[in-house]
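assembly run, all chains below
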Amino acid sequence: MLKQSRTISKMQMLFSIACFIQASMLLTSFFTPVGGSSSWLAVISSYLVFAVFTIPLIMLIKNFPDKNLFQINAIVFGKVGGKIVSAIYLIFFWTLSSLNTKDIGVFLQQTVMTKTPTYVTIFFLMFLCAWATRKGLSVVTRYASFFFGVSMIIMIFSFIFSYNLMDFSYFLPILDIEPIRFIQTTNVSLNIPLGEIIFFLMIHPEVRDINKNSGKVVYIGSFMGMLNILLVVIHDTAILGEAGKLFTIPTFETLRMISIGDVLSRVEILFAIMLMLLLFFKISFMVYVTTISIAEILEIKDYRRIAFITAALVYISSYIQFNDSYIHAEFGITVAPLIWTFIEFFLPFLTLMIFIVKQKYKKGSEQTA
Amino acid sequence: MKIFRVILIFTMALFLAGCWDSKEVGDLAIVTGMGIDAGAEKDEIKLVLQVGDMSKGQKDSQGETEPIILDSTGVNIQAAIESLKIQSTRSLYFSHNQVILIGEEQARRGIACFLDWFVRNENTRMEVPLIVAKQDAKAVLQTKTTQNNISAFAVKSMLDNDVAPSFYSKINLLSFLSTHINKTTCPIAPIVVSKIDSDKNTILEIEGTAIFKEGKMIGELGIHQTEGLMWILGQSPKRNIIVKNDDGNAALAIVSSQSSISSDYIDGEFINEVNIKATFRISELAGFKDKHSDNIIPFINDLLKDDMYTKIGSAIQSSKNYKSDIFGFGSALYKKSPEKFEQIVENFDEIYSKSPYRINLEVEVLDTGKINGILTDHQNKG
Amino acid sequence: MLFKALNRHIKKIISSKEIKAENEWEKQNSCPIYSELIGVLDEDLNKIRGIVGTSLDIKVTTFNFGENSELNGAVIFVDGLVNQELIAQSILQPLKLFKGNEIYMPSKPCDVVEAVRNCVICSADVVYEESPAKLINAFMSGDTVFLIDGFKRGLIISTRGWDKRGVTEPQSESVIRGPRECFTENFRTNTALLRRRIKSSLIIEHMVIGRKSQTSVALAYVDGVVNPEILNELKSQLEDISIDALIDSSYIQSYIDHNPFSLFATVNYTEKPDVASARILEGRIAIITDGSPFVLTVPMLFIESFQTAEDYYVRPSYATALRILRFISFMIAIFAPAIYISLTTFHQELIPTKLLFTLAEAKEGTPFTAFIESFIMVFAFEILREAGLRLPRPVGQAISIVGALVMGEAAVSAGIVGAPVVITVAITAVAGFVVPSQTDVVTILRIISMVFSAFLGGYGFTLVFFAILIDLASLTSFGVPYFEGLIPARNVQDSYIRMPIWTMKTRPKSLSGVDDIRRGKTKNN
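ok done. output:
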């Protein structure tokens, strides 16, 4: 069992959640083609649904303030069952880490460095993430507030300066899509950015005083993150309108069009910087969580020894993920929401239910005994 | 030692990166203007590139760089670039492209298929204006005006500044693309021509607006109609409006203007409405001897209104003659109520060309500026 | 299997060799078998002379004193370290005038040493000492040792007085407004300078480090404010130092620095007593070394490199502007060549078009890539800087002119480097001096970021930035986190901005242990 000491504060966790969700602004191209001009409503509704679906997670945090997710599984499902459920989570964490690594590799290849092979650029990223993991959670999440502040400022700045390019009539008519598509968009928006909160269930034992106000931390953090995604969606829809469906990275294209005065005209570099900072943060966090997960399952006492190995595994597995972003988008819209919902929301709910039933059963048997 | 191993690994990885993406500035051929002309064959295009020449000693007396014009033919843009690459010693760099010029002949043949390259390429930008060149793109790109050696810069600054109708700064590749993929709206592009004026200098001039439909140029609007177009699309020209009468003439500076369009489909009638609200200030008055300071403003007001009605009316009428909705009346109806839009979308061209239109103008001349009233008024008093 | 056994064997041999060498060294440096005074003056003096050698500056004077000159005494001192007048006035004169029969009777044996100390010697600082090692140490440090025949105790009388540098203006930390005193190489002067500023609760603990140099080292801290854990940790580390000679405080710095291979120093130093006392009052510990005008302060926070003494003496708005300027200069000093390289080599689309044309023309005749050019210029600048430091003053001017003209002007005209590179490197170089305590960090990081930018462009630059952030975040100085993150959560009044003094009500939490409030409420706030 890992001994996790109280190393980070609640504010750090809050900002980490916000940064985590914000880093998915690259992935808005998953749901905007489906949602069209109503995507922003889908984002808002997904937050409302998320607020309800997170209640089991928060209950779990409150009931087990010093046990991480895998330890909770061991308690609730028993030793063997716990290991099986934990293995499902582990595969999920691992897959998500490699998908995100692939994302940043693809982003770099498409926009910045078209000829350099991704395996070189991602190698350095993985090395840095593994190094940060070895130094501990406090280092990984140290800059969360800074990254959040910077990306928020950049987003607001670009919103203000592209105001002249925006045409808010692109939002009319409201809700022009079929209800089933709206639900689909909400589902995608729920699972891909917001549902990754499950990662934080692995680290909540390291947060000081987590049993007080843990709900507030999760809700406020995810709200701040979602706010940024909402800004991005509104910004893109207002500027690109119908043409937004064409581009793989719409935000990049819109930012290219901003020009401030005559001198400052290539502002997309800000988006690239912001995205790289956020994705660095997210990937190093995910590598950290994956490392601790492997350490938990294999009962390795010092997770630092496997940090580099885990990073290498994530790196290699990212290389064999989707090569075509169109198929990736298809997966993100059609298949992922169903699988991810099961893992991110249903499993914790199940865990909580079984825990409550067990408690009742124990109390009942105590009373009768 | 551990650090030694780490340094070794990093060095190897860095060398693996190989600087594949690094381009030395000296090795670039910076493309400032691109032109697409009609090729000899029906399905071929001629690509013309205006490249800034960086080699020393090529500067003219003013210290500005001389451009080089490269051209080649191919079945699509990338094919033409490939054959250009063989000729050019430096690698072509498109990120600083200022304009996209399309020769009139090629525009009439169709350009929709070539848009794909511009949108897909990582280096090209969506804010670049798309312009139709009256004779052919090569002529415009080869023009050297007195102020600018590189005509691409000249065209771009013309579109951005007060020299010509400046609303063209909003007509760029993105807007062309958006309107192109829209079901009912038709894209527009400015027309630029290279002329020799009376002093035997070559100048570039904007001659009107081209109307595209389904990727082909089907007609054009003249300067007056373009002004009307400007008013409707809400991008107020930053210059002065001249109004004339038998008694005199006046120039009015635009202080602010707002416009909106709306359409409705009532009882089988597709009605188009344009609402414009503008405020002016007098910047020059000449003549009007029999007018005084108290009645000059309403008089100018009426003159203005007539002028604007004519221009806007002729713009709308032209677009109806061409059966192409360049203003966005169709989308306005769609945004208002999609059901009504569904009823007219199949026969949209026919319905549009016959539908009535209304222009609602609210014009206000604010004041007369530095001088109270008219100059002649004050002349009369001793 | 065989290799493992061989490996183990080899390691054993090496380690045993090391242990043997240590033992030899220990033996050499410990005192020979002379652990207490014999009592017979001649023999003692011979033994002492045998230990310290026969240098001419170690003076041993024997004389008789007492009523009938029956008492034999010897005074040992080192010429040059003592104030000879003091010896004459406080020791020799009273002894020579000493009659004696008020204190002792020749027939009644009693402790003459005690009598002499209490009634004869006119000095306020007289100590008994029995161990010869300590007596030798005393007179080698400048005190005078007085031995009396027949007694096993000697007296150590404080008579120090040597040529020393007076308290002058500091060379490295100059201010326009504020005190201009600086520490000197003299130990006592330094402790006195601190005492003058903190008159209450300042504790100065003494220790001696260095076998051959026997250097005095003092720890100064304020009781009740310092964190006792840090203090104990520091003390145990200092006691563990086993070194021949302690020449400068930086030797101590290397021993107590927990992260020797990190780029950033975790032990700070200063030359000014006002700075040192301000730091002590925040909960830090100052280490004063004899022979070094630089006083170390521990633990160190990253932000200290950007805080100068003058910040607190000028008005807050100006101080804030200066602080921000320092941060920006630090960034420029590290990243400017890297940004130039990545922009002109990878990301030409970010440069405005007209500027790009100018750059392209400037690069026309030059043979090297941007990275090689920048590297040449940075290297040339480092050579200039180092040469400027080591030069004797009269030649300095000529070299700076040669450097500026040749390396700047002529290199550009000859077409070796382009003008933009020279400008960039010049700005970088000058910006590097805005934060002088970090020039070592800046030089190395600059090269690293240049290398990564040359290979990977803007992405490489981001990688280096992130790596620096991670490294900073993981450093701790004596358990205190070195860098609180780019947005400091606490103590924001003294970080990137400098708010008025009365807003800084509590001491930095991470440093201090107990006493939190340092400025109370005033009438206005």
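Residues 73 and 79 of chain A are 8 Å apart (CA to CA).

Chain A has one domain: 10-357.

not gonna interpret more than that til we talk
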